[in-house]
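Q: Focus on the chain.
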Amino acid sequence: MNDIESRIIKVYRQYTKNRKVDSNSHLSGMWSELLDVYEGSEELMALELEFGITIEEEVLEEIYDKKISEASKAIEKMIIEQNKKNYNPDEVLSTLSPENAKKVLSLLWKNHIKLRVYIQDEMDRITYESKK
């Protein structure tokens, strides 16, 4: 099982506490009804937040009936493709919730000494804006 599969399973378990889930489970099992799948559902937003991507409706329709192991490959491609477009740190941070932006910045803080001034400024800005 790869990292993407395990992260999908983690999100899956949030919405299906009583079901057994593994790499062979179908992604569709995460939703109680097909109508709940589309734009705006909690499950879809949780997947998008987990991976920092936007899952378009047509892509979701393609992966909905796939096993988690297969869906993870499609999600990996989306991550790579969407990250090519999001090279500006400000754009990336603006797509995250304040809590997740702080998590990302904290990880960078720990691992990259040269970025600490930028990160501290951004964390202060996020804290200030989230209190508005």
The chain has two domains: 3-85, 89-130. DSSP finds seven helices and no strands in the chain.
